[in-house]
Amino acid sequence: MAATGFEYAITRTLNAPAGEVWGAWTVAEDYGKWAGAEEVVMDVRPGGSWSSVMVIPGGARVPLTGSYTEVAENEHLVMGMDVPGRDEPVLMRLDLAADGGSTKVTLSQTFDTAEERDQAEQGSNMLLDGLAAFLTR
Fold first, then answer.
1. What Pfam families does UniProt report for this protein, alphabetically (predicted)?
2. Closest CA to 105 of 14, 39, 4
3. N or C of the chain: less Cβ packing under 10 Å?
4. Domain tally for the chain?
5. Residues sharing a CB contact under 8 Å with residue 135, sequence separation 6 or more, in sequence order
6. pLDDT for 23-71, tens place per residue?
7. Tell me, what CATH number does 32's domain have?
8. Residue 113 lies in a domain
9. How far apart are CA 88 and CA 85, in angstroms?
10. Would you give the end-to-end CA distance of the chain in angstroms?
11. Distance of CA 37 to the CA centre of its chain
């Protein structure tokens, strides 16, 4: 990740083994269930692509696309998201650390502006809320 700009990192401990957390992020059917996404397609490997349609509160549908830049199963995943008007994708890093039967999850990103960072941090907290609820079922 770039060392300059506006960064955030959110860390949570989830009551599930790293393999389950990894699967929730990398199996299209599971990801769709907790992330509020439909039409999820994932090719989880360096250089592989992903796409989904996020269904946001109120019913609006937002198509998203991107790619994977780093993949280390059950450890970390770096995903790029294509943003209209930007030459480079916005990167998000997911780090997993096994902690007994639980997993410490850290999501981090860097942005050009504080406003972009704050919006993304809010969205990431919502994602982690959905992930935690999915894993406790």
1. AHSA1
2. 14
3. C
4. 1
5. 14, 15, 16, 20, 21, 24
6. 999 999 999 999 989 999 999 999 999 999 998 888 899 999 999 999 9
7. 3.30.530.20
8. yes
9. 9
10. 33
11. 12
